[in-house]
């Protein structure tokens, strides 16, 4: 019997928790002990059957101001405090205490680089879990986030990693652990549990020996209200209230010749939902059943979250995307590269947004590209099999 700690450190939204809970259930069914370490815990998960710990996180005031763009994953770690050896050392100390308290003998790290460093120091096998963005290619230096643009000189990418690597190795040395020869080695773990397929990988290239497990799609157990009456393209939407442009795009969408059903996560209020809703735009107060919605809709609108993109591609439907963050932009550019979607600006006037919708609805090239990705995605195992294969790896290689 193994003692498995499932840890989530960085990133936003419920998807991180959901994928850890799936692993927790299968690990428990196979007789293993499980503990969770979560960045945040929604109120509806107050009574989980496993012990839950708070992820060690630095205070926001301890993190550096972002004064230059993040070129690659090393640059992102810089702005998570990784150049500050004392801060990183304190975080590692708290992770090591957590490992001792839980009795963990292996760690699954969902976008959790500090948990991976602590596992290296503690000599515990660790399994990095997540989509492509969370698991950059194992190269020196790691590639630029914006792969579709002319790459920055390698010296700039190496420089973005050098100080971070020095700090990581200094903390490792304090505990008598071996240094890393390159920063990407920090993210290798025992085996990476890469939850995507090559066509949806946020990076456009990675070494050929990297194993992909497939993208486990949602269970389809949400709410489905049906479509508003009328004519026009049926649009399925999933947005976050805290992201920029949500008010603008919904206000504009409500004036167009469409039938749309949206869910707005991230704390949208009842007053906001009332303000956005029109006869043609329904704003659900409950998470939507994307399995139904994706099959019935004509196209989707989202900020290019990996889960929503995969669900829409599984249904063979093109996407309009308004990415707010670097990881969303990377995914959006992959879909644009395949021809299965287009980027929009939420500040566009009604006539321009209507034109973008009409393009995706009427031009066959978008649907053909989405159908091609549908064929590729459906060639991979189903959700339960993917999760089971990951648990096999955790058991056998731990």
UniProtKB/TrEMBL annotation:
This is Glycosyltransferase. It comes from Natronospirillum operosum.
């Amino acid at each position: 019997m193994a003692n498995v700690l499932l840890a989530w450190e960085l990133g936003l939204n419920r998807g991180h928790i959901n994928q850890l809970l799936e692993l927790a259930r299968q690990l428990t069914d196979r007789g293993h002990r499980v503990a969770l370490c979560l960045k945040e815990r929604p109120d509806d998960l107050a009574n989980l059957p496993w012990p839950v710990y708070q992820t060690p996180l630095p205070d926001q005031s301890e993190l550096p101001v972002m004064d230059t763009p993040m070129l690659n994953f090393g640059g992102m770690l810089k702005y998570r405090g990784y150049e500050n050896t004392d801060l990183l050392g304190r975080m590692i100390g708290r992770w090591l205490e957590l490992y001792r308290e839980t009795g963990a003998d292996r760690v699954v790290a969902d976008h959790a680089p500090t948990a991976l460093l602590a596992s290296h120091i503690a000599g515990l096998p660790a399994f990095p879990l997540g989509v492509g963005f969370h698991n950059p290619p194992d190269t020196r230096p790691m590639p630029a986030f914006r792969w579709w643009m002319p790459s920055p000189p390698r010296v700039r990418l190496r420089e973005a990693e050098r100080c971070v690597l020095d700090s990581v190795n200094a903390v490792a040395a304090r505990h008598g652990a071996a240094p890393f020869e390159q920063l990407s080695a920090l993210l290798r773990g025992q085996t990476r549990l890469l939850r995507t397929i090559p066509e949806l990988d946020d990076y456009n290239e990675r070494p050929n020996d990297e194993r992909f497990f497939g993208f486990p799609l949602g269970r389809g157990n949400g709410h489905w209200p049906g479509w508003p009456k009328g004519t026009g393209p049926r649009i399925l939407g999933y947005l976050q209230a805290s992201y920029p442009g949500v008010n603008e795009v919904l206000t504009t969408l409500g004036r167009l010749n469409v039938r749309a059903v949206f869910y707005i996560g991230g704390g949208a209020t009842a007053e906001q939902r009332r303000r956005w809703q029109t006869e043609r735009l329904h704003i659900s107060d409950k998470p939507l059943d994307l399995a139904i919605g994706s099959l019935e809709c004509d196209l989707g609108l989202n900020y290019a979250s990996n889960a929503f993109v995969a669900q829409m591609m599984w249904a063979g439907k093109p996407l309009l995307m308004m990415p707010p963050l670097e990881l969303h932009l990377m995914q959006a550019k992959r879909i644009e590269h395949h021809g299965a979607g287009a980027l929009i600006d939420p500040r566009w006037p009604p006539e321009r947004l209507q034109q973008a919708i009409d393009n995706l609805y009427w031009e066959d090239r978008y649907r053909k590209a989405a159908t091609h990705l549908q064929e590729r995605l459906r060639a991979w195992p189903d959700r339960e099999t993917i999760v089971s294969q990951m648990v096999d790896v955790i058991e056998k290689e731990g």
